[in-house]
Amino acid sequence: MFATVQRSFEVVIIGGGPAGSALAALLAKAGRRVALFERRAFPRFHVGESLIPAVNLTLERLGLLEAMDARGFVRKHGVQFFSPRGPSRPFYFAEVEDPRLHSTWQVLRSDFDQMLLEHAVAAGAQAFTQTPVFDVAMEDGAAKGVILGDDSVVRADVVVDASGQNGLLAQRFGGRDHIAGLENTSVFAHYKDVVLDPGIDAGSTLIYRLDGGAWLWLIPLPCVVSIGLVAHAQRIGAFGGSAAAMLDNAIERNPFLRERLVDAERTIDVRAVRDFSYRANRDGGPGWLRIGDALGFIDPIYSTGLFLSLFSAELAAAAIEREPRDFAGFAADYQRAFERFLVLVRAFYLDDFRFSEFAVDAERRQGLVDLLTGLVDTRSAIAVGEALRAAMAEEEERGIA
Ligand SMILES: Cc1cc2nc3c(=O)[nH]c(=O)nc-3n(C[C@H](O)[C@H](O)[C@H](O)COP(=O)(O)OP(=O)(O)OC[C@H]3O[C@@H](n4cnc5c(N)ncnc54)[C@H](O)[C@@H]3O)c2cc1C
Question: How far is the CA of 110 from the centre of ligand 1 (A)?
Fold first, then answer.
């Protein structure tokens, strides 16, 4: 494998997940010489299966919209939240104006990620799987390439860290800020024969809130359904002694989800994954940038991970085209989106927050739908953010008093 790696590129990307592959495709289409190094063999399993519609805009620019249906991914038209007392009114993406955002997809990540990687290669990027990067090569304080397992250096004008939660460059270029209060863990699996709602609701994400800040997701995928439990790392043990027991018990505790699984059968082992929210304290510097989960990660309650990953890839592509020497601050628009989602995430974990009670008028509901779609800059979305911030400040004051 190493023998075929050329020794010099304009851009080297570390990691072949959605962020790295999307960036590789965008740059290759713009005529850049790009190499991408991925440590795993593809296809590979990955958690994170639900898209929000704003992702469609990147898929459209990549020319991949038709491929989404052709691959058999499930159409997702909305989201519904269930409190322990019952369901909220569903949120439908068709409530936003732009018809391109009226639905999106639920994907099998092994398939989705492979599609993006193959697309990058078809666009002209060179991709090397099973080729881990061990470090970044520096010269005069700037990134100048990457170091592979045989200690060889592949030189590049720009190095992009798209290595996911692994965050290869995190320590070298300033660490990460953990986001307090969101130190969660998740256990999840796939099931067949789960009862889904009829019509367009069959592809919706369903979120079941349990007591004590824990919750379950239900995401319909091609042929199977993904179900996962998210709970605070220090409290998830209360659900059971093993990952499988935790998931079984959590499902058992929620009557609305339990009734959908009466005849269901688990098709894969239950997996566990750390789910702490964090943000890198530097987005870029001389000759380097971070994108995707290497740049930041927010709790998966609203399925914003892939949107933020692809959005940061688009910002990186635009920044690289401008050819600055220093990429510090390239992700300002990403940071704004991150902040707007984070407020909504924190609201979800308030003990007495209910979507149905918060969406008291049309403007509030529109703001929520906009945010759930990924439209973070609309007037209604901004107003919802402000209202949530005010409600949280009030709650904090009540707590102190
Ligand atoms: C419990 C949970 C549920 C989630 N649910 C959702 C969801 O429903 N919807 C959603 O949008 N998001 C969800 N996410 C988030 C989503 O999975 C991520 O945001 C997304 O995968 C990030 O893409 P990425 O390309 O940045 O990283 P990844 O997809 O993790 O890809 C990084 C790649 O880098 C490779 N790599 C790592 N180190 C090296 C190295 N040294 N050299 C070479 N290659 C390397 C890895 O093998 C990997 O393939 C969820 C996350 C969690 C934890």
Answer: 11
The amino acid sitting at 361 is D
pLDDT band at 170 (very low <50, low <70, confident <90, very high): confident
**Ligand 1: which residue has its CA nearest to atom 30?**
164
Helix (H, G, I), strand (E, B) or coil at 221: coil
All residues at 6 or more sequence positions from 263 whose CB lies less than 8 Å from its CB, including other chains: 193, 195
Q: For 36-89, how does the pLDDT look when each residue is reduced to its tens digit (9 = 90+)? A: 999 999 999 999 999 999 999 999 999 999 999 999 999 999 999 998 888 989
- Mapped onto helix, strand or coil, the DSSP state of residue 41 is coil
Q: Is the pLDDT score of 325 beyond 80? A: yes
User: Quick one: pLDDT at residue 396?
Assistant: 75
Nearest to 364 by CA among 349, 339, 341, 385: 385
pLDDT of residue 400: 62
How far, in Å, from the CA of 41 to the mean position of ligand 1? 15
Residue position matching structure tokens 């080297």? 12
Tell the residue number behind the tokens 């067949």, with chain if given. Answer: 192
CA–CA separation, 15 and 82 (whole Å): 36
Structure tokens at 276: 């702490």
Distance 272 CA to ligand 1 centre (A): 14
Question: What ligand 1 atom has the least distance to the C-alpha of 304?
Answer: 11
The tokens of 19 are what? 């962020």
- Comparing 6 with 299, the larger pLDDT belongs to 299
Separation of CA 127 and ligand 1 centre (Å):
17
**pLDDT greater than 50 at residue 2:** no
Length of the chain: 401
Long-range contacts of 135-143 (CB under 8 A, 24+ apart): 135/168, 135/172, 136/168, 136/169, 136/172, 136/288, 141/286, 142/285, 142/286, 142/287, 142/288, 142/325, 143/285, 143/286, 143/287, 143/288
Protein residue with its CA nearest to atom 13 in ligand 1: 48
Residue of the CA atom closest to atom 5 of ligand 1: 48
